[in-house]
Amino acid sequence: MTVYRNALVIILLLLLPVLGITQELKIGFVDTIQLMKDSPQAEVARKKLETEFQPRDLAIVDMQKQEKQLEDQLTSDTGGLIDTERKKIERNLQSLKRDIKRAKEEIIEDYNVRRNEEINKLQKLIDKITVDIAKEEHFDVILRDNVLYSSKRANITDKVLERLRAPQKFDKSSAETPSSYIPGK
Questions:
Q1: FRET pair for 145, CA 20 to 30 Å: which of 75, 98, 108, 153?
Q2: Cross-strand bridge partners of residue 29
Q3: Is residue 69 scored above 90 in pLDDT?
């Protein structure tokens, strides 16, 4: 969808001189990927997600320690265990492995949902700031991502980042972003 929109904008820009429209067009560009990485809201959101998912991560680590203990018990006491005790430990080990796998899948799924929520919130903030700058500086078109080349004059990424970093625009309780933190590892 974005590719088609960008292609349409480029085609329109190329047709403007042919159609006789001589008014100068002011075009800008914003690098949202850079903003998602470098904004203070991104860092706050990363820490927020880490804090939110750390207890579940630690629970998985504890389960993995139990798994290791059961495996060690099986391998170290090969001759000393009664057959029924051995089978009981093996069943417990299998059950624990399933629980670990399920817990990892759940935390990754939940984490991805939360991360996407945080990304969407930050994207909305970036969009709002970008539109504000575009209106203030009288841009006709602002492109984002998928741009092959952008001059310094057209690139407004630093201006958006500056506003994201401004204390009056920064609310730590609602800061959101993607995170490189991966739970369940």
A1: 108
A2: 143, 155
A3: yes
Q: How far apart are CA 38 and CA 157, in angstroms?
A: 11
Neighbours of 173 (CB within 10 A): 6
Q: What is the pTM of this model?
A: 0.70
Instruction: Give me the DSSP letters along 39-104.
Output: SHHHHHHHHHHHHHHHHHHHHHHHHHHHHHHHHHHHHHTTTTS-HHHHHHHHHHHHHHHHHHHHHH
Per-residue pLDDT reduced to its tens digit, 137-153: 999 999 988 888 888 88
Map residue 27 onto helix, strand or coil: strand
How do residues 78-123 score in pLDDT, each as one tens digit? 666 788 888 998 999 999 999 999 999 999 999 999 999 999 999 9
Q: What is d(CA 91, CA 121) in angstroms, rounded to the nearest whole number? A: 45
Q: How far is CA 98 from CA 63, 85, 111, 126, in A?
A: 11, 20, 20, 42
CA 4 to CA 176: how far, in whole Å?
A: 28
- How confident is the model at residue 14, as a pLDDT? 66
- Please give the domain boundaries of the chain with CATH numbers for all domains: 2-174 (3.30.910.20)
3-class secondary-structure state, position 85: helix
Judged by DSSP in three states, 118 sits in: helix
Cα 31 from chain centroid (whole Å) = 15
